[in-house]
Amino acid sequence: MMMSTSAPTPVLQVEPVLQVEPVLQVENVTVRFGGDTAVKNVSLTINQGELVGFIGPNGAGKTTLMRVITGIVKPQEGRVLLEGKDLAKSTINERVSAGMALAQQIVQPLHALSMLDNVALACGGAKTASVINAMFHTNREQERDKARDLLERVGLGEVVDALPATLPLGYLKRLEVARAMALEPKLLLLDEPLAGLNQAEAKGLADLILTLNKGGQTVLLIEHNLREVLRICPTLYVQDNGLPLAFGDADTVMKNPEVRSAYLGGQA
Question: I need a labelling partner for 27 at 20 to 30 A (CA). Which of 70, 93, 121, 148 fits?
Fold first, then answer.
């Protein structure tokens, strides 16, 4: 009996498809203030590891939607989910505990504390959530070590002992990012972090945001500095007059006639 000498048919190895999990889901959110509709039927999904630029002209409703996400404003319709959990009944603090952190446009550090202790206080948030917790956790060396690492990470390693009032705005913007990162967020919300900075400072902070994202941090960036947003954000969400205009690949979004009209005043 003759034996076949042909090679066996190779078994095709199929790589498993990795499922990208959504971190933030905004579903059909509408917000009304009196007779005015600030946000209408907005939906947005941000997946793990994404860096999404949230842009739009003045009066677009960007701040209102951010306040809905963080729990400051309650929508009349729709819902917000963090990693699949409906946040409708969650307070601001509960959203922070669930993994949401906001770096605000107007930086308000504790001026009596050093840069290091400003961040250390944020690092120790879990210990100081109540008076009882604070009583049983008086040693802050672990938090100070973590704060020192965070300040190095955001480019402030040389000013850890300085008081915030002695430093320029560009440094304080980075401090705000460090304080937000101290919470180890699943979603980092940045509200116009480049506002008030000169071109070099804005570029440097934008580079930092990109570096954090490349390290795995999921980011939603609200920003008016379109130049820097387009440079670092692969994905854009655009809103105008409370209405969603476009969401997707940055190049494709910026070619959208409605988006160009919103920014160029009908000269698209």
Answer: 93
Per-residue pLDDT tens digits of the chain, which is 268 residues long:
444 445 454 445 555 545 678 999 999 999 999 989 999 999 999 999 999 999 999 889 999 999 999 999 999 999 999 999 999 999 999 999 999 999 988 899 999 999 999 999 999 875 555 444 544 555 678 999 999 999 999 999 999 999 999 999 999 999 999 999 999 999 999 999 999 999 999 999 999 999 999 999 999 999 999 999 999 999 999 999 999 999 999 999 999 999 998 887 654 4
Q: Could you give the CA distance from residue 58 to residue 48 in angstroms, rounded to a whole number?
A: 29
Q: What is Dmax (Cα atoms) for the chain? A: 93
Tokens matching residue 99: 């993994």
Q: How far is CA 156 from the centre of its chain?
A: 20
